[in-house]
Amino acid sequence: MSRLYLARNPRVAARSLDGEMMIMSGRDSTLFTLNKTATILWQSADGTTPLDQIVGQRICSEFEVEAAEALQDAETLARELASHEILQISEEPIPPSKATGASR
Amino acid sequence: MRGLLEEMTEKALKRNVPLSVQLDLTYRCNERCVHCYLDHNDHGEMTTAEIKHLLDEMAEAGVFILTLSGGEIFLRKDFFEILEYARRELTFCVKLKTNAILIRESEAARIRELGVESVQISIYSHRPEVHDAITLVPGSLHRSLDAVRFLKSQGLRVVLANVLMVQNAQDYRGVRELADELGVECTLDPTITPMMDGDRSILSLNVDQGALREVFRDQSLVGDVDEFCAIPAPADESLLGSLPCSAGHTSCYVSPYGEVFPCVQFPLPTGNVRQQHFLDIWRHSDQMNEVRAIRMKDLTTCTSCTHVSGCSRCPGLAFMEGNMRGPSSQDCEKSFAKTGVPSANMLAKKRVAANLVQIRALPAMSGATA
What we know:
The structure holds two protein chains of two kinds. By secondary structure, chain A is of the alpha+beta class. Chain A contains three helices and six strands. Chain B is α/β, with parallel strands linked by helices. Chain B has a nine-stranded mixed beta sheet, with helices on one face. In chain B, strand 7 (251-254) and strand 8 form a beta hairpin. In chain B, helix 8 (209-216) packs across helix 15 (329-339).
């Protein structure tokens, strides 16, 4: 099974407001707020850490879920975020120049 | 259903977070608009390093929407360095305000690449002879409209900002048609504001009641004219307990010299980021907290006014008239133009004027002879 890599889309705007992540789409200025799992994916999307590692290290420990199920859910969520152009996903690591910096 | 931005603004208000900031990068400008409220001389703008440090502090404070304005922002040689830092490193939602004279294809492409949310461009008329007579720069309309096309071709969101004044009172429909042709948005602002130093001479450029009435009865601008121009419902307890404006509550303004004000139209000094942390000024400035404490019920004159629940009263304009809890006469004029009913402030002024010029008939002098 191929690994999936996530990177933040450099064209979105993002800020954490009292623990809730606000994201404004660079495509059409739609505003989103991310739930806890999506926020973890956003914060971990550095282009080099594969999704299974993010799930193992940050999601399973946070939510006490079985790894295979969590990975499947996380992949669905990542693809949804990618469809809104919030995240970029690739089967290869994504070079840092194409990803945005750390968000606060 | 409430919009998500409204929901987040409410959350920011509860947490005392400055969600939105306008930062003027310079007051220098390559136009000399006849109605401009700024002194265009450079009195010591913040350096690149100072601005980046301020942006760091703003991001830490929770600022999400950052409007970069001026003056003319593209006159700063480090503009793209600042923009890149704001977008790539700090992920602000960035809006730009500019006259766009210096935006060509390459600048438009760079703005697009950096993911700017929108670019607002000042356009005063569809006719070069009117626009250029306001900016005092020959060829400026042509250059600005070229820039609109460059930005639009990059897929960017562009907004034409049209300020209404005596010189262009008849041209707002032309500007709207132009915006439609270009496929961009358009805003209309019928208010000329005093200079930031308090000089009110440019207020003579404000359009008169007749022009205001025409604008407020233009269905293409206001939608349902009867509804827009109706006398507002009386104020209830909930309205009287509400905030007059977002200035100082979820938004503020920073000048090129680091001064922090509640709003670009509210020149009450609250601190300077060259001496204090941005968040300390935001949270602890006595002046900011004074602005924050004001509720609608605290407004002198306005609470007894027919228009209180529907007025566009600007606390900054009221401050510039001498009392941040007082009325803003320009908004009284607008309410009057909408409804035909004078505001409490207008009636009070009329009474004062009547007292000043009162002429009493002299008692008859019986038996007087010539």
